Structures are given as C-alpha cells and as structure tokens.
Amino acid sequence: AFKNVTANVLVFSFTSDWLFPTAQNKEIVRALQVHRKPVAFVEFDLPFGHDSFLIKNAKQEKLVSDFLLAVYDDISNK
C-alpha cells in the first residue's frame, strides 16, 4: 500500500491513544521504511487518549511546523 508514496511522511502517536495505538503507527513507519520512503516518527506521552491531538501542545505544534517548513524548503530547492 505504501510503495507508491512520493511525499515525506510524519507519523506521530500518543501513548494513551487506544483507538490508534503506537504499535499500529509503528507498523505504518516500518512499511514505509521497507519501501525506503522518507518517514519520521515521534511518540508523545500524553494522558488524553485519542483526543490528545486536539489539546494545545507546543511540542506537537513545533514538530508539525518544522516538518512542513522542511518539506516546503525541499520542494522550493528543486
């Protein structure tokens, strides 16, 4: 399913997420790595379960912002 991915991928998960647990996210990362796709993974230790991504989190915001800026810079320099 991931062999035709052309985008840089950022996968992040939350330790308390029971709907999409970290183990499943790591499977996605491994599948992308098998196909040598650019992927980054970060796990946040937050107690808010699946809704953790909805809670204001400076580290998460910086992670996404830095990722998007790097992708933009990469595209701009081609």
List keywords for this structure.
alpha+beta, 41% helix, 2 helices, flat, two-stranded parallel ribbon
Work out the strand percent: 15-25%
Order of strands across the main sheet: 1-2
Structural class: alpha+beta
Q: For the report, how would you describe the main beta sheet? A: 2 strands, parallel
- The sequence of SSEs as H and E is EHEH
Integer-rounded radius of gyration: 14 Å
Q: How large is the count of helical segments?
A: 2
Tell me the overall shape: flat
Distance between the termini: 27 Å
- Mean pLDDT across residues: 92
Care to describe what's here?
The structure is a single chain. With about 80 residues, the protein is an alpha+beta fold. Helices cover about 40% and strands about 15% of the residues. The chain contains two helices and two strands; from the N terminus they run βαβα. β1 (about 10-15), α1 (about 20-35) and β2 form a beta-alpha-beta unit. The protein is flat, with a radius of gyration of 14 Å.
